[in-house]
Amino acid sequence: MNAIAEFLKTFPDDRVAALLFHARDGKLNYESCCCLIGSLNAPHPLQEKYGDDDYHAVRLRESSPLAAAAEQEFRMLSHCNKGRRELVIPMIEAEINRRMSVCRHATRDEAMVCPLYRPEKAEQVDGYHGPNHFEAEHVN
Fold it and tell me: Could you give the number of structural domains in the chain?
C-alpha cells in the first residue's frame, strides 16, 4: 500500500481533509470522478458519481505514474467501495497525523504554516465544514 500513502503526501492540506470527510460520508467510490485520485484535482465539490467535468481524474492518471499506481492499488483494496473506504480511511488519517506530528515538532515560526495543527484542538481537523466547504476553490 505504498502508492496510496505516497500519493496522499502530494495532497494540499485542505484536499486531504476534504478527502477524509468525503470517505467518512460514504461518498468515496472507485467509479467516480472524485475517486481517490480525482479528489486531488476536482474542479468542483467532491461528489459520489461522475459529474459534468469528469475527465480531471483521467488527465491526472495519464500524466502521473504515481496517481495511476495509487488508483490501481485503491481498486485492489476490496471488491466493493465500502471495503475500499474502510481500508483507505485509516491511511488518510495516518497522513493527517503525520502532518500534524511534523507541525507539533516544528519551531514556532514553522508551526504557523501548519493549517491542520491547532494545539488547542489537536484531535480535530479544524475549520473544515463538510465536503462542499471548498466548492469555491479549484485545484488545477
Answer: 1
Q: What is the mean pLDDT of each run of 10 residues along the chain (140 residues)?
A: 91 92 92 84 74 70 91 94 96 93 69 52 40 40
Closest among 68, 89, 67 to 78, alpha carbons compared: 89
Domain that holds residue 52: 2-121
Q: Is residue 98 part of a domain?
A: yes
Q: Is there a domain that residue 112 lies in?
A: yes
What gap in Å lies between CA 136 and CA 77, rounded to an integer?
32
Residue 108, pLDDT score: 60
User: Around 110, how many Cα atoms within 13 Å sit in the side-chain half-sphere?
Assistant: 9
Please report, as a single letter, which amino acid is at residue 104.
R
- Would residue 131 count as lying in a domain? no
Closest C-alpha to 131, from 36, 14, 12, 13:
14
State the pLDDT at residue 60: 83
